[in-house]
Amino acid sequence: MSTAAAHSPRRIAWTRRRRAVSGAWREYRHHRPGMIGLGILIAVVAMALAAPLLADPSGLHVVTTTQNAAFASPSDFGGLGTDKFGRPVLTQFIWGARISLLVGLAATILAVLIGSVVGILAGFFGGKPGGALMRVTEWFLVIPFLPLAIALAAILGPSVKNLIVVIGITSWPSTARLIRAQVLTLKERDYVDRSRALGASDWHLMTRHILPNVSPLILANTTLTVPIVILSEATLSFLGLGDPQNASWGKMLDDAFEAGAVTLQAWWWIIPPGLGIMLVVLAFTLCGTALEEILDPRLRDRRRA
Amino acid sequence: MSARLVTGKLLGSVATLVFVIVFNFFLFRVVETDPVGSLFRGRNLSQSQRVELTKQFGLDGSKAHQFVRYLEQTATLNLGRSYTTNQPVADEIRRKAGPTIALVGISSVLSALFGTLLGIAAAWRRRTAADYSIQGFTMATYAMPDFWLGMLLLTTVGVGLGLFPVGGIVDPSSDATGFAKLLDQAKHMVLPGLTLTLAYLGEYAIIMRSSLLDTMREDYLLLARAKGLRDVVVRNRHAVPNALLPVVALAAINFGLVLAGAIAVEAIFSWPGLGLATYEALKGPDLPMLQGLFLVFSASVIVFNLIADLLYSYLDPRVRPS
């Protein structure tokens, strides 16, 4: 290895970043709630990925389960019993994890992407243009999420793709506000001034100096947005806006409620989907809080105090 | 609080309201080129019905013409007619606002009260078994979908034990009036109220706990202790009032949000409020009703955000501009 390559700015930067990541992981490993959350997540994701091995998808369709008894309790049918159409609840639960996680992750990525771009632009270009962007963000912040998402989903129609789009484009404003606040302090740092004096363009400053410095915050924020998004998806699906072809846990609860599972006290149909949502939300919240404490400099000081 | 500050915030809220009104128009008219077609997807719709529906929704004529008519109507609080009941949307909303305000109001106060108390209790006993159990409980209630919690309570306490009525706001077979009717309504409110209280208490507990822990590190508390004040006095008289600030702001903001957030819970308990109206309008689908409800929900959030904002700058001198 030549000395020139070892000391190239890019290489130095990557070495520093790799060290920061492994340092953060070392701290994360000792964060008990964070590790519990990570454990739950790995288990649920593994179950969702292994769905074809764990449960025959023919159990999801009304036409292929006619030989099963309807509303059979777990002691009569085994597993987690059956629903109104004789479909095994366990099969639906395993396959439902896929949809809930897919919508949760995809909509979060969309929301955080929009929020980060708006936040960085609003923070970097202060003054009139940044202020105008922030004004728009605040407007979207006050529009109540649920009615807006309901109106959009009703207009677009129920499908997994539309759920992702609807939740994604309604969940970005809080991320934008958070990122902007951080960018406002970052752009006043000396190294940004120095880089600008050396002739760096706005694009260079934003992608090389601002973005790498807000990315830990973006990561923590992403992890904390997923639980909110998953709960939103559950509510929208429960209100009848879920994809009937690809039932998530929220859609399962909608089906159960519509079929009168409450009156029939079919607890085996009601408990699993809700418990699944609760566990995943809890796990992401635990992971996100841990990441925030480790990556957010203000919270890190507080934790050590 | 200076008059200028209040005027500024008031104008900001009015601007936001105007934005919502304009946005409401575009949301229902421009996002999709054919809302009639997509709302009635999969149903037989003759050409004449389609023309009639388009006219009924105010979707005929040019976009600019529609926009002006929409602004005129909204300014005079004419929100159109409901597609399912053929009643004016404004009247329907006025009639259904009462039950929602009662349910949401009572559960908001209860969740703020009990959530704050739990948060205080957890912060005092920081890192003890009590703290961890309170945190576990509040995290669990926070992570549950509120309608699922409602379904569980309905299945166990409602249907299973038969302790409380499982739906509606009054017993349809009773013709009680006065106090007896009020008692009947209160009984109907127990399960939905308990659901919303439990669902929203976690947030208060989490915020109160961390706010109190922050406050307890302040220098003036060290001084209070150094003066020889008893721990109870230091906490109740010096720490808690200051730590309450974010909770008060959260309560004001939440009241606006919960109004729209109770949709699924109202649907489960057939509580005849704005949430159930939304649920039914969605099944209809009743476009003018949805549009009107969206406007009312947004306006309520804007109003309560303004209240929270003013309250905060009144209570906390630090955010008051000099």
Summarize the structure.
The complex is a heterodimer of chains A (about 300) and B (about 325). Chain A is about 75% helix and about 0% strand.
Architecture overview:
The complex is a heterodimer of chains A (305) and B (322). With 305 residues, chain A is mostly helical. Chain A contains 15 helices and no strands. Chain A has helices at 3-6, 9-29, 32-49, 51-54, 74-77, 89-124, 127-142, 145-156, 160-170, 173-186, 190-197, 202-241, 249-258, 267-295, 297-304. In chain A, helix 6 (89-124) runs antiparallel to helix 12 (202-241) and helix 13 (249-258) packs antiparallel against helix 14. The two termini of chain A are 44 Å apart. With 322 residues, chain B is an all-alpha fold. In chain B, 75% of the residues lie in helices and 0% in strands. Chain B contains 14 helices and no strands. In chain B, helix 5 (89-124) packs antiparallel against helix 6 (129-143), helix 5 (89-124) crosses helix 8 (178-215) and helix 6 crosses helix 8. The longest helix of chain B is centred in the middle third of the chain and has 38 residues, at 178-215. Chain B is globular and about 85 Å long. The N and C termini of chain B lie close together (10 Å). The chains are: A mainly alpha (305), B mainly alpha (322). The interface between A and B is large, with 44 and 54 residues.
